[in-house]
UniProtKB/TrEMBL annotation:
Residues 144-339 form the HD-GYP domain. It holds the Pfam family HD_5. This is DUF3391 domain-containing protein. Coiled coil: none annotated. The lineage of its organism: Bacteria, Pseudomonadati, Pseudomonadota, Betaproteobacteria, Rhodocyclales. Transmembrane segments: none annotated. InterPro entries: DUF3391, HD/PDEase_dom, HD_GYP_dom.
Length: 415
């Protein structure tokens, strides 16, 4: 960054006001490309005589140096540019507050769902009918929410627990499966069956010792014990009355692979029930993003790339393509570089404009609890690329994603 006097600024010059802090100026961003004379006038009204500018990001050269003795243009005080922009900033601060409250509300709802899911798993053996009723109610609420609207909005939530556990994985797989189910235009009955099967798909893991579940290098006997969780899952739901075959098949077949190399029955192709094929993709995606050891976690784009390229033989190719389309170009949890040189993380998709998600911006001058949330439709900004968290400073990653886990809350949206 270089210093430049305000009287040399014109639209197209990229400036930085980071030294003032976000609350110290009326602009939406600390770093931005000037787009009109009103912005320059606001800087003058603030009494600022010089700013930092970035030649590489500028689309126009500054005005030439004023020669000695040249008349100074009279300042125009009639536009009240600063007052107008300060009012816009107040409106923006209020919108950020509302967005943050909305995210907090969804986090509370996700926590309630996690508690409900935990109660369901604990009730399966002793009170199977209560567990079935609670599970159907939990799935039904989400299905009704999605079916009653035109599209979906996917939110990243920050549940307080650092230990995900079975309930969090189950909720993610249920939400991801139902998102794909909506894209496929499944009937209400199919959606309910899919949601219930996805919620219960791993219930048999309660019988597997944690040391085996967490071990990524299992011995032969340990792998056999691990694979038995499918059978334990079928046993766990055996006392549920009138559970549809489609639900049972999601639990029984969510580890079957399209090329016939899966387990327990080595089914292949369309012999694998379609709802199980959907849940299998959602299950793999969440396991890649949220492994037991979060140091092995894949970024959303990396997880999608691994499923699409390295593991394509395992899954229904058409469903994988629809899954990628459903999650969007930048799924929640994606670290992104922005056209102003900033870094952020996607926290919410925008179904009407997938290239313009809601992004949390990294700014060390702003406390994380007050981090700026920016709808890219509101700013002259765009995503330049997705980033791997491994390429970012640790403090940036911890600012944007202190938990490491990616958990999702899905809402219906009317366009």
């Amino acid at each position: 960054m270089l210093q430049i006097r305000v009287d040399r600024l014109r639209p197209g010059v990229f400036i930085s006001l980071s030294s003032l802090g976000w609350m110290g100026h009326p602009f939406l961003l600390n770093r931005f490309c000037l787009s009109n004379e009103k912005q320059i006038q606001a800087l003058r009204e603030m009494g600022i005589t010089a700013v930092e500018w970035d030649p590489a990001r500028s689309t126009a050269e500054p005005l030439p140096e004023r020669t000695a003795g040249a008349p100074v243009a009279e300042q125009d005080f009639s536009s009240a540019a600063l007052a107008g922009m300060q009012n816009e900033k107040r409106v923006r601060i209020e919108r950020v507050r509302e967005q943050r409250e909305g995210l907090a509300r969804r986090e509370r709802l996700f926590e309630q769902q996690a508690i409900a899911a935990g109660d369901i798993f604990r009730s399966l053996l002793g009170r199977p009918q209560d567990a079935q009723r609670q599970a159907k109610a939990l799935v039904g609420t989400l299905v009704e929410n999605l079916l009653g609207t035109d599209s979906m909005v996917i939110h990243l939530v920050s549940e307080k627990s650092r230990e995900g556990g079975l309930a969090f994985h189950a909720l993610n797989v249920m939400a991801l499966s139902l998102m794909l189910g909506k894209t496929l235009r499944l009937s209400e009955e199919e959606m309910r069956h899919l949601g219930l099967g996805a919620l219960l798909h791993d219930v048999g893991k309660q019988e597997i010792p944690p040391r085996i579940l967490r071990n990524t290098r299992r011995s032969g006997p340990e792998e056999e014990f691990y694979r038995a969780h499918v059978g334990y899952g079928i046993k766990a739901i055996s006392s549920m009355k009138d559970l549809p075959v489609a639900v049972r098949n999601v639990i029984a077949c969510h580890h079957e692979f399209f090329d016939g190399s899966g387990f327990p029955n080595r089914l292949a192709g369309e012999k694998i029930p379609r709802l199980a094929r959907i849940a299998a993709i959602a299950n793999r995606y969440d396991n890649l993003c949220n492994p037991f050891d979060l140091r092995d976690a894949k970024a959303p784009a990396e997880a999608l790339r691994q499923i699409f390229r390295a593991e394509s033989a395992h899954y229904d190719g058409q469903l994988v393509q629809l899954f990628i389309r459903t999650l969007g170009v930048y799924p929640p949890g994606t670290f992104v570089s922005l056209s102003n040189g900033g870094v952020g993380m996607v926290v919410e998709t925008n179904p009407a404009a997938l290239l313009h998600p809601l992004v949390m911006l990294h700014d060390p001058d702003i406390p994380r609890a007050e981090a700026l949330l920016l709808d890219l439709r509101d700013a002259d900004l765009k995503v330049e690329s997705a980033l791997s968290p491994a390429t970012l400073p640790v403090e940036t990653v911890e600012y944007l994603a202190p938990r490491g886990r990616l958990d999702y809350y899905v809402e219906g949206s009317k366009n």
